[in-house]
Amino acid sequence: MVRILNILAIAALIGSAIYAYTIKYDTIFHAETIVKLQHEIKREQDTIGMLRAEWAHLTRPERIQALADKFLDLQVVALNQIVRADSLPGKAPRVDAIGRKLEALGLGEPTNTPGSGSIIDPAASSTPAR
Amino acid sequence: MSDRFDAGFEDKATDVPVRHAGSRARVLKTLTGIFSAKPDKSAIRIRLAAWVFLAVYGIIAAKLIDFGLRPDPPQSIKRAAADAVAAARPDILDRNGEILATDVKVMSVFAEPRRIIDKDEAVELLTAVLPDVDARELRERLGSRKGFVWVKRAITPKQQQEVYRLGLPGVGFLAENKRVYPNGPVAAHVLGFASLDGIGMSGLEKYIDGQGLAELHGAGFNLTPENLTPITTSLDLKVTYAVRDELAKSIVKFKAKAGAAAILDVNTGEVVAMASLPDFDPNTPPDPRDLEYINRLSVGVYEMGSTFKAISVAMALDLGKVNLRSRIDARESLRYGHFTIHDFHATHRMLSVPEVFTYSSNIGAARMALMAGVEAHKAFLYKMGQLSRLRTELPESAEPLVPKNWGELNTMTIAFGQGLNVAPLQAMMAVGALANGGFLVTPTFLKRDEEDAKKDAPRVIKPETSESLRYLMRLNAEIGTAKIANIQGYFVGGKTGTADKIIHGHYSKDKVFTTFMAILPSDKPKYLFLTLLDEPQGLPETGGYHTAAYNAGSVAGKIIERTGPLLGLPPRPDLPTQPFPLLAKLGYAEANQPAKGGGEH
Questions:
Q1: Which residues pair with A73 in a beta bridge?
Q2: ipTM of the complex
Q3: DSSP symbols for B186-208
Q4: What is residue A77's predicted lDDT score, i.e. its pLDDT?
Q5: Does residue A113 fall inside a structural domain?
Q6: Three-state DSSP class for B108?
Q7: Taking a C-beta distance cutoff of 8 angstroms, is the pair B395, B203 a contact?
Q8: Which residues, in sequence order, are CB contacts of B537 under 8 Å at separation 6+?
Q9: At what angle do helices B374-383 and B408-415 cross, to 10 degrees?
Q10: Which tens digits make up the pLDDT trace of B315-325?
Q11: N or C: more exposed end of chain B, with fewer CB within 10 A?
């Protein structure tokens, strides 16, 4: 009986030792991962800083103006080209030319088109076929 | 056997002292004492052991004290590097968040002279890879007794690879912060620059250091760009660029020596744009002692010319000496002792106050200042901040040049802007107060809102006076000298100023300093524009004239036209119907009617 207890105790001891060491090595591993990630984050942040500086350098007004003068056929905006939104002419009333034609032909009745409930995206439908 | 041996030894021992000196006998006796196992001899042994231990511990203690007292402990390389590496600085942003200055990480090559085996070879190899390093100077630095020296700061990745391949012992790399200004010379005078070690040398960079950044670094805080809050300036990058571009074009056009331009938000005191030419690229800063590159708006002091008349007229109006209907005698030149004051656009008649302003009459302005008197004039200018140094965030500023014995003649000339040298930014502050309803708002280069600005801004003139001045400036843009900057749609008001420059103690006739101030919109001013040109030349298309209306005024017009949309000011197709309600209430209904005529102005 005592021997079994002893064996059990030794097994428990070995088991707990193994467990403790597993935890220890896991911790070391995680700590290393953290350090590695921190380095990576630092590197990324440095890169972001560098890219931000580069972006600012490449989009500086001086360069954009030179490029615009070279490649774009645009003029400097004149003040009389700027108007307020409310001084724009109102939208013309919507004219449904096809509908009118149908009405004139006496076909104004609604028809049961299949899928009439679905909304057709005008942008998608207006894509020209190639 | 053993007895005999012992006896033989004893014999020898007793023989030696007999044959030689007595000292040897004593040594031998001690030795036999030490190595003897007899208990009565061991006292010597114990004493010797005690002395030896005492000596050893004594040496250790002495060495420890020596280490403690040594003045220059050998620095660890890491410590030396941390001291040498350029400190991180916060980003500087414009009002819309665009980057004006930022830190990037770069690699720098350093060397530890003590660990370099062959210094001459190292110098040879390093200078072959880094051609812009001076060989002799590098040899000298490597020959020093320091533990850490820089070989070259901020190298390219390719150079780093090459240095790495040299495989020199005692040569390594360190990541450093390098300050970069992506926009080059745009806003250079406001930003200033930082040295290679990350210390602000001028402009806002120096201001940031003064705000405690340097102390934080000194205390050893590990600051990275991520945990520093960016500084948001009042500048608008695009507007600043446009202003600088137009100014540069006009300097070339009018063959001026120098020029400057700025836009001030009159309500918040924010400087939205600032350019002073010639300027520099803060990435490759010039010698700070070179006066060619000073900020002409805050460091230069100039006689502002007729733009100062706005202040004189405001003073006369505010003190109740004149009203808008008063008549001023400008029939003949004003004589004072040996001096005579002439008008540039001489009219030889009685002028109303608005006419004094639109004809830019020196005589009229001088008379109005005399009405107020010398002391009141001085007090008013002091109140407007023209007689004391203007302090903003920029560390560079200049004291105005105030005449020592200020008499009536000084008052007369200062009334039309000669005889008192102020920084143009200072004059802008005063004109801003004339325009914004009467609050003297100190200009700032950091973003702030109107509430903050007006909190400690003193009221310096009455709101009616401010409105009168706005009316006068508007009138001047409609029919007066500022017509050239009357950009349709913005209801611009303006005042020109042409000051004769003093050359060898005399006012020169052909060397002038021209200024132009414009407010817009005049009914509810938001921005004050200033342009100034140093020694512009007359051009055939300006009829050979070099007065402000033709050069500084035209630049201002171009700047307004170009930056108005950028500043978010919508052009108005129609003129406002009631731009000056206070004046209408006071009985000057004509102020609200668009002015006509004035062709001869």
A1: none
A2: 0.72
A3: TTHHHH--B-TTS-B-SHHHHHH
A4: 81
A5: no
A6: strand
A7: yes
A8: B254, B255, B256, B546
A9: 50
A10: 999 998 888 88
A11: N
Show which of residues 100-129 on chain A sit within 8 Å of chain B, judged by CB atoms. none
Digit-coded pLDDT (tens) for B88-128: 788 899 999 899 998 888 888 888 888 888 888 888 888 88
Structure token digits, residue B487: 């950009």
Contact B306, B416 (CB under 8 A): yes
Cβ of A49 and B241 within 8 Å? no
Can you tell me the distance from the alpha carbon of B587 to that of B601, in angstroms, rounded to the nearest whole number?
26
Whether B148 and B81 have beta carbons less than 8 Å apart is answered as yes
Does the active-site annotation cover B306?
Answer: yes
Alpha carbons B230 and B403: distance in angstroms, whole number: 43
Angle formed at CA A71 by CA A49 and CA A76, multiple of 5 degrees: 90
In a domain, A63, yes or no: yes
Mean pLDDT check: name the lowest of A23-32, B9-18, B387-396, B426-435.
Answer: B9-18
- Quick count: other Cβ atoms within 10 Å of Cβ B491? 24
Please list, in sequence order, all residues whose beta carbon lies within 8 angstroms of the beta carbon of residue A25, skipping any fewer than 6 positions away: none
A39 near B CB under 8 A: no
Which spans in B87-236 are helix H?
A: 119-129, 135-143, 157-166, 188-191, 203-208, 214-218
In a domain, A33, yes or no: yes
pLDDT 10s digits, B561-590: 889 888 988 888 777 777 888 888 887 777
- C-alpha dist (Å) from residue B133 to B127, B159, B174: 6, 12, 18
Q: How far is B113 from chain A (nearest CA, A)?
A: 29
Considering only CA atoms, which of B347, B359, B483 is closest in space to residue B416? B359
Tens-place pLDDT, residues B332-375: 888 887 888 888 777 788 888 888 888 888 888 888 998 888 99
Predicted local confidence at residue A27, as pLDDT: 96
The domain total for chain A is: 1
B484's tokens = 């050239």
Q: Which two tokens stand for residue B33?
A: 């004492």
| pLDDT of B599 | 45
Dist CA A8 CA B451 (whole Å) = 79
Rounded CA gap, B368 and B342, in Å? 15
- Give residue for tokens 């903050």: B452
Cβ–Cβ under 8 Å, residues B550 and B498? no
Decide if A95 is inside a domain. no
- Position B546 pLDDT exceeds 60: yes
Question: How many other β-carbons are positioned within 10 Å of the β-carbon of residue A128?
Answer: 4
**Per-residue pLDDT tens over the stretch B58-97:** 999 999 999 888 766 555 555 556 666 667 788 899 999 8
Residue A96 backbone class (left: φ over 0; alpha: ψ -120 to 50; beta: rest): beta
A79 touches chain B (CB under 8 A): yes
Asked if A46's CB is within 8 angstroms of B184's CB, the reply is no
Encoded amino acid at B508, one letter: S
- Residue A26 belongs to domain spanning: 2-71
CA distance B429 to B447: 16
Taking only the tens place, the pLDDT of each residue in B443-485 is 999 988 888 888 888 899 999 899 999 999 999 888 888 888 8
Chain B residue closest in CA terms to A56? B182
Instruction: Supply the pLDDT for residue B60.
Output: 96
Q: Which of B563, B15, B589, B535 is nearest to B238 (CA)?
A: B563
Q: Which of B250, B298, B306, B466 is catalytic?
A: B306
Q: In a 3-state reduction of DSSP, which class is residue A47?
A: helix
Whole-number Å distance between alpha carbons of B557 and B573 = 17
The amino acid that residue B523 corresponds to is D
Q: Which of B85, B99, B237 to mutate to test the interface with A (most CBs of A within 10 A)?
A: B99
